[in-house]
Write a sequence for this structure.
């Protein structure tokens, strides 16, 4: 899934970012600070922003991408406002968590590990949230939903929409 | 130049003190295996195949990243070294498709060569292997991550020698591959298709998209000069059944092992069906095939005619900056010595 | 004049601070030294942590009050560069980041190597799981690090320093930023320090989540803006380091030790600890220990004294099984070696390492294979992927450990594991790769019987590996049905007030039944 | 090149002017980039922002045709600031005062005005060049393909001498020769005034030497250049034209003019490996073999004579060019026969001082850079080592003169042409490589984004481009790497062939056509024009 980074909508941040780049570009080793600032400002590393870094710091885009994928703190997908984690621990799995996960995916039109284009929701999976007796369990942000059924999914989401 | 004396595999040699063990061994005619080493590049130290035992060191040392020292005693083929190399090769094979039978690289693959030399086989195991990733977007070559040993030669050739920087390592650890920005494919990167990465790849990970099927041992190599610009890059034409099927750069030459997209990949014109195969004469606006004898006859007729009617300066010749010295020499000789005119020029100006 | 200013601040501030701390019953006086009060601190000797929890880290004057920046003044005003190097050499201070390389020797290498530019780097990329020594120093006494770096800069002729700190330590970043700004404002960093013509500036660089950047050359790569992949050591970092210039990398604790050494002299430092490992070492004592926390003791202190006298032994009176030192690069030390002296040589002699100071205590309920697997998984995740043995080898080792904990391994797998452990440690490029198998090697050495129990008997003696345990309901069952109600997979049968039973075919070993069983004092649900 | 390719990496400063090196000489381009990575300074003077601009310390984006003003401006700065190599000049050069007098009239302000670049950049470039111990100049057709091309080369030579960069390792003045054996073709005397090794036709001694060797009388009248030939054809003075391995219908300026000449000439022989656009106009087409099917030598841009080796058999009845020429000579009664090119090289080295030490055995492994005087000589890495070859280096001050055709109301844009990475010359060979066509398969014209916007032209639009000589249809490539009043076209393609637009004004000295400057108009193709 592609996330169209809206340069216009982010105009202020982009301007701020460019100002930051022109300040640091005379320093040796400006790439890491640049990436860190970008992650901070945009909450992920959009392609467009990496291209700006490439142009301003005169570093090939491939090298920037190589560096960015090396460090685990950088992300290429914006995190949604609401993080949904479906527990896929054994108990939940046995109780049909996979179907629940699929229902979330269907409902939001994204896959696990992705974020909706309005940046509202991200879906992830969890490895045992330690609530096996209430399986299947779903966690949204820090709220726990026990004994989730497929038909509950829409209703659960509505509260966050 | 300061020199030092050292012993490698009981052979005593004296070499420049700035050399590394791997360079000294090469001078001594001792081959140390290596997968990520290229004398044109900085030491990378990733493959660990060049490990040797150095007396006085408890640990194994990599020959590529160890400088020679006075009195150093190096052993490149002890049991310990050989076992370690076998283990490293085994680890590579564990994460490499067992498809040498159909791999185009077979016969010129360093991994295969070393596996053979050290007697290491593929084994079955239940562990993870690298996820499939293929970049076939470039018209001339293909990258197959599963055959990649991550020696980084392609990345370093691209960034340090070609200085394009179209590819780099992507991800970390076991998930590392060689990729383009956002894995959008070579064709969407700043790749200039020079293929210098392909020439450097020791395995079948980066391979030309060949129209012809050929095995490394079936081709004869003919060293010649590339015909696409004035740099004069030295190349080996790979020839199978009287057909040029590939090109590889020569390292010890003006081009230092580099080529451009034309030199590396534009060889199909040689055996192209459109090639002119016979002299053609235009008669009534239509070209007809004629023999060489007939062609020469016509030329003689024309020359005699104009020589008599118009004199030597009615002849003119355009020689070619694409032909050899010998041909250019003969061409001007033809005009000067035989046709008696200096109306001769070539396209130096274009 | 500059010294007078320092003295004035010290003389004004110190009584004030001490008085307040005494009033709050936080500290006590040990001779002239102000130390934290309480049993936990009684047997500690705090040099690197000397100011932690005593001064306010956001007030440079409080640092000065406890002799802060007097060492830098002393170095600049009365010692030549080579004298500083000499002092450090004589102190025999060894790098506290893990490898224990003599600091003075390192400095001498950089000092005697001619270059137009040199660098000092403080490695604050503390990444070992369970270790937080450096973090405490950075957050609670940042100036001790800045001062140590400045002294290092003076000694080798560097005017620029970098602190490479993990991004996961936002508080440390904040404290450091503040401290650097304050020191600059006071003229203790920056141009012409103490008016003696020495310039030294410090810049913060943040990591971005790569454990391998704790390795010196990877750290340099990272500062330079590259992937943090270690470089082969064709040349010493002290000669060819950051941007090809002579570079000294020391860790946080090492730098924190520098000011006291300069101030009190090498002899004083050598009087503490052992002959070959003088001084103290900070440990973060965690795991199944009664009193978890930071411990600083003289080198050579017995492990038993740390775990039992200071740490108070295992929680819940469980039996001590092992202590893991040195994080993913270290090893597990069994009961037999509790009397080992904690110093570089002694730990190495039993297959572990000092490491940066993580000490994870384990009790009888910890499965050693599971621990080895845990650390291997960490190494797999954090391997940079550059060299073959570490990238491929740690993954294969992890897979074998997985098989063992699942009861699917045979003796051949165990042999393979041992072989792989040696390849990886013998042939990896950097220190991390070379030491990654240590958790496996030491557990194989000291807990082979546990491995055999998993492989041959298909049992986990610690009853921790899910695949190898079964839940059963004993005759103590009172038939309350609570377990039945809580079972997520309906694997429990039984009528009210009658003994229940578990269908082991259905059981997914989630442990819910065990957790909820109300029978006392011994639960009716048993683990085999 | 005065110096060698291997020296590029050791230049302290590299001055690239009128050369899109990474596209036209990709491997040399790579070496230049390597040098920059190693710390060399790079000055680029080019009307377009090219790949090297990104590596440059200074990019002088000058108007096409203003090279001389730029160089004079740089020399003005160097002389005003006394940064020239006085000792070198005193020892090796003549006419410095004249040069100083002339460039005094080119203060950076004036040059900046003419070139359309910031004066500070000219100053910066001059300082970088002059302050470098070893600075090399690299140029190609962007310098020579102007009506003032020879003067521009002289100008560059003045600059190099001024800073003592000739006769020095890792420096020099280095034209990068475009075609694989353009150096060799010139060395071999395939030019109207020179015999091999630049021995003059009008030089009695030289001519006699060749008359003796060839046992025949020779003409001492200087012959016609390509452009003159076409004129002489129209004047019906030339009747017989023999073109070997050339495709002037695509490569030469003013295609309409070329075609009319080829149509007009009485008898035209074209010898090539494919049926080229030029073959269409031939009376007789002779099939030759490609470089991979014959033996011989090429001389590269650093004067290195290297072997060409036969790898595959001749196709059909095609023959190596040397054999065809020899057979024609024999047919015409000149008896000399050669069984292999090696024998021809023997004859060449006996007549050519620079090649006298060269033979196939000696060049087998790595080639040899001429001059190579005798059998012990291992060749010459860089020229003028001990003294400037003509004795003393002569400063030849030259004034800037406008290009012959300048924009006006009817043709308001300057069109400049050039090469791209993916094709060689007229695509006879590269046009038959699918992959190359996939990446770069058709003609286009680069246009500045603001200009395009003003003319309502969008990227990919079909456009009509006109000049006084012809018009073509091609596609617009909207870029921000070119000035507002400049357009660029690669000349390789026949669909929208740039040379229909170019003019035949030539440099009076070297007779090189002014392909880099033509006045043109451009407009978006209207709907109704689409067929």
């Amino acid at each position: 899934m592609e996330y169209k980074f809206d340069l216009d909508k982010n105009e202020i941040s982009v301007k701020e970012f460019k100002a930051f780049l022109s300040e640091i570009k005379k320093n040796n080793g400006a790439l890491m600070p640049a990436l860190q600032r970008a992650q901070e400002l945009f909450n992920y590393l959009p392609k467009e922003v990496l291209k700006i870094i490439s142009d301003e710091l005169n570093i090939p885009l491939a090298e920037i991408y190589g560096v960015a994928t090396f460090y685990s703190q950088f992300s290429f997908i914006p995190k949604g406002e609401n993080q949904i984690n479906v527990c896929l621990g054994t108990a939940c799995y046995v109780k049909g968590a996979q179907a629940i996960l699929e229902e979330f995916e269907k409902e939001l039109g994204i896959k696990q590990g992705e974020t909706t284009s309005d940046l509202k929701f991200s879906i992830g999976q969890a490895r045992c949230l330690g609530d096996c007796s209430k399986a299947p369990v779903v966690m949204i942000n820090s709220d726990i939903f026990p004994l989730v059924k497929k038909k509950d999914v829409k209703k659960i989401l509505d509260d966050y929409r | 130049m300061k020199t030092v004396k050292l012993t490698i595999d009981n052979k005593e040699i004296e070499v420049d003190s700035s050399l590394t063990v791997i360079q000294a061994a090469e001078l001594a005619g001792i081959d140390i295996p290596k997968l990520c080493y290229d004398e044109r590049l900085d030491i990378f130290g990733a493959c660990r195949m060049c490990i040797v035992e150095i007396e006085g060191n408890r640990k194994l040392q990599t020959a590529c990243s160890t400088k020679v020292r006075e009195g150093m005693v190096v052993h490149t083929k002890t049991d310990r070294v050989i076992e370690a190399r076998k283990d490293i090769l085994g680890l590579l094979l564990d994460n490499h498709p067992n498809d040498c039978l159909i791999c185009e690289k077979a016969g010129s693959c360093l991994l295969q060569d070393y596996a053979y030399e050290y007697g290491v086989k593929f084994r079955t195991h239940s562990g993870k292997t690298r996820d499939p990733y293929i970049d076939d977007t470039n018209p001339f070559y293909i990258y197959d991550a599963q055959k990649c040993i991550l020696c980084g030669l392609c990345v370093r050739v691209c960034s340090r020698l070609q200085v394009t920087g179209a590819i780099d390592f992507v991800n970390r650890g076991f998930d590392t591959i060689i990729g383009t920005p956002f894995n959008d494919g070579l064709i969407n990167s700043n790749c200039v298709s020079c293929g210098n990465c392909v020439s450097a790849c020791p395995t079948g990970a980066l391979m030309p998209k060949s129209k012809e099927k050929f095995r490394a041992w079936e081709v004869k190599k003919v060293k010649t000069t590339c015909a696409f610009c004035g740099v004069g890059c030295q190349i080996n034409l790979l020839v199978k059944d009287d057909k040029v099927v590939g090109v590889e750069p020569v390292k010890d030459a003006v081009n230092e092992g580099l080529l451009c997209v034309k030199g590396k990949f534009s060889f199909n014109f040689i055996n192209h069906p459109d090639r002119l195969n016979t002299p053609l004469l235009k008669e009534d606006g239509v070209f007809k095939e004629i023999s060489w004898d007939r062609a020469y006859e016509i030329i003689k007729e024309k020359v005699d005619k104009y020589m008599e009617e118009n004199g030597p300066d009615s002849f003119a010749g355009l020689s070619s900056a694409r032909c050899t010295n010998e041909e250019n020499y003969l061409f001007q000789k033809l005009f000067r010595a035989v046709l008696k005119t200096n109306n001769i020029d070539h396209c130096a100006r274009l | 004049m500059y010294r007078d200013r320092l003295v004035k601040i010290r003389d004004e501030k110190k009584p004030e601070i001490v008085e307040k701390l005494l009033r709050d019953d936080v500290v006590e006086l040990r001779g002239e030294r102000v130390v934290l009060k309480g049993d936990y601190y009684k047997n500690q000797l705090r040099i690197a942590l000397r100011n932690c929890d005593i001064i306010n880290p956001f007030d440079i004057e409080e640092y000065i009050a406890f002799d802060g920046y007097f060492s830098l003044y002393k170095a600049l005003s009365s010692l030549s560069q080579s004298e500083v190097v000499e002092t450090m050499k004589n102190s025999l201070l060894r790098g506290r980041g893990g490898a224990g390389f003599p600091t003075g020797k390192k400095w001498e290498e950089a000092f005697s190597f001619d270059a137009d530019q040199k660098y000092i780097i403080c490695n604050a990329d503390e990444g070992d799981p369970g270790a937080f020594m450096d973090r405490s120093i950075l957050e609670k006494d940042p100036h001790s690090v800045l001062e140590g770096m400045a002294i290092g800069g003076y000694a080798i002729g560097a005017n620029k320093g970098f602190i490479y700190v993990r991004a996961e330590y936002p508080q440390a970043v904040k404290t450091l930023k503040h401290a650097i700004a304050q020191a600059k404002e006071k003229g203790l960093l920056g141009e012409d320090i103490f008016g003696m013509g020495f310039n030294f500036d410090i810049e913060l660089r943040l990591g971005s989540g790569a454990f391998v950047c704790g390795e010196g050359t990877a750290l340099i790569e990272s500062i330079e803006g590259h992937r943090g992949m270690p470089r082969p050591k064709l040349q010493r970092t002290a000669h060819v380091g950051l941007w090809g210039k002579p570079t000294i990398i020391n860790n946080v604790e090492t730098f924190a030790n520098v000011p006291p050494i300069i101030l009190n002299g090498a002899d004083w430092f050598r009087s503490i600890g052992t002959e070959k490992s003088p001084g103290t070492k900070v440990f973060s004592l965690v795991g199944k220990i009664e009193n978890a926390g930071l411990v600083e003791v003289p080198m050579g202190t017995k492990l038993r004294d740390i775990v039992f006298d200071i740490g108070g032994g295992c929680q819940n009176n469980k039996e001590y099984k092992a202590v893991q030192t040195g994080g993913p690069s270290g090893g597990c030390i069994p009961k037999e070696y509790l009397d080992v002296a904690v110093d570089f040589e002694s730990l190495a002699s039993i297959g572990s390492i000092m490491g940066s100071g993580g000490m994870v205590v384990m009790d009888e309920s910890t499965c050693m294979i599971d621990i080895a697997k845990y650390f291997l998984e960490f190494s797999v995740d954090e391997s940079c992927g550059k060299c073959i043995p570490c990238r491929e080898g740690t993954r294969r080792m992890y897979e074998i450990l997985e098989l063992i904990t699942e009861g699917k391994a045979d003796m051949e797998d165990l042999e393979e594991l041992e072989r792989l452990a040696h390849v990886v440690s013998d042939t990896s490029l950097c220190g991390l790769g070379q030491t990654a198998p240590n958790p496996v090697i030491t557990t194989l050495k000291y807990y082979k019987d546990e491995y055999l129990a998993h492989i041959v008997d298909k049992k986990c003696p610690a009853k921790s590996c899910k695949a190898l345990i079964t839940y059963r309901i004993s005759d103590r069952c009172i038939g309350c049905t609570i377990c039945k109600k809580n079972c997520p997979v309906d694997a429990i049968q039984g009528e009210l007030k009658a003994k229940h039973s578990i269908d082991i075919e259905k059981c997914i070993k989630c442990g819910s039944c065990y957790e909820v069983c109300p029978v006392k004092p011994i639960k009716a649900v048993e683990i085999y | 090149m005065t110096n060698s390719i291997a020296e590029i990496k050791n230049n302290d400063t590299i001055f690239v002017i009128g050369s899109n090196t990474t596209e036209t000489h990709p491997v040399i381009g790579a070496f230049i980039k390597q040098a920059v990575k190693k710390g060399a300074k790079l000055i680029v003077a080019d009307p377009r922002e090219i790949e090297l601009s990104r590596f440059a310390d200074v990019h002088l984006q000058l108007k096409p045709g203003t090279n001389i003003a730029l160089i004079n401006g740089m020399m003005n700065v160097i002389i005003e600031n006394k940064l020239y190599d006085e000792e070198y000049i005193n020892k090796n050069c003549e006419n410095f005062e004249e040069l100083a007098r002339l460039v005094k009239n080119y203060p950076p302000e004036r040059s900046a005005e003419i070139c359309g670049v910031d004066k500070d950049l000219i100053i910066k470039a001059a300082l970088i060049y002059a302050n470098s111990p070893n600075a090399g100049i690299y140029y190609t057709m962007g310098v020579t393909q102007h009506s003032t091309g020879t003067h521009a080369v002289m100008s560059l030579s003045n600059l190099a001498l001024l800073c003592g960069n000739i006769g020095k390792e890792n420096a020099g003045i280095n034209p990068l020769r475009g075609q694989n054996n353009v150096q060799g073709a010139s060395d071999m005397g395939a030019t109207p005034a020179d015999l091999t090794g630049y021995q003059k036709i009008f030089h009695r001694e030289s001519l006699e030497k060749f008359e003796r060797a060839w046992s025949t009388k020779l003409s001492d009248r200087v012959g016609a250049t390509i452009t003159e030939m076409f004129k002489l054809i129209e004047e019906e003075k030339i009747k017989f034209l023999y073109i070997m391995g050339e495709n002037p219908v695509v490569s030469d300026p003013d295609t309409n003019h070329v075609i009319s000449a080829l149509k007009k000439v009485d008898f035209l022989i074209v010898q090539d490996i494919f049926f080229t656009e030029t073959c269409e106009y031939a009376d007789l087409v002779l099939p030759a073999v490609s470089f991979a099917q014959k033996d011989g030598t090429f001389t590269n841009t650093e004067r290195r004579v290297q072997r060409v080796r036969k790898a595959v058999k001749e196709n059909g009845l095609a023959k190596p060019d040397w054999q065809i020429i020899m057979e024609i000579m024999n047919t015409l009664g000149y008896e000399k026969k050669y069984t292999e090119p090696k024998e021809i090289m023997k004859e060449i080295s006996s007549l050519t001082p620079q090649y006298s030490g060269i033979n196939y055995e000696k060049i087998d492994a790595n080639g040899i850079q001429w001059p190579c005087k005798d059998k012990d000589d291992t060749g010459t890495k860089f020229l003028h080592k001990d003294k400037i070859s003509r004795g003393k280096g002569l400063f030849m001050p030259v004034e800037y003169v406008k290009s012959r055709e300048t924009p006006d109301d009817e043709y308001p844009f300057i069109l400049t042409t050039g090469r791209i990475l993916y094709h060689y010359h007229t695509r006879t060979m590269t046009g038959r490589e699918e992959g190359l066509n996939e990446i770069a398969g058709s003609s286009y014209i680069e246009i500045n984004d603001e200009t395009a916007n003003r003319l309502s032209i969008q990227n990919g639009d079909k456009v009509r481009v006109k000049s006084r000589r012809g018009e073509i249809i091609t596609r617009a490539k909207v870029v921000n790497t070119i000035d507002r009043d400049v357009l660029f076209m690669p000349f390789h393609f026949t669909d929208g062939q740039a040379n229909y637009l170019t003019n035949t004004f030539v440099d009076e000295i070297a007779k090189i056509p002014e392909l880099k400057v033509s006045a043109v108009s451009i407009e978006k193709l209207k709907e109704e024009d689409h067929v």
Chain C touches chain B through 30 residues (CB under 8 Å). Chain C has four domains: 75-270, 280-363, 368-457, 470-527. Residues 300 and 343 of chain C are 5 Å apart (CA to CA).
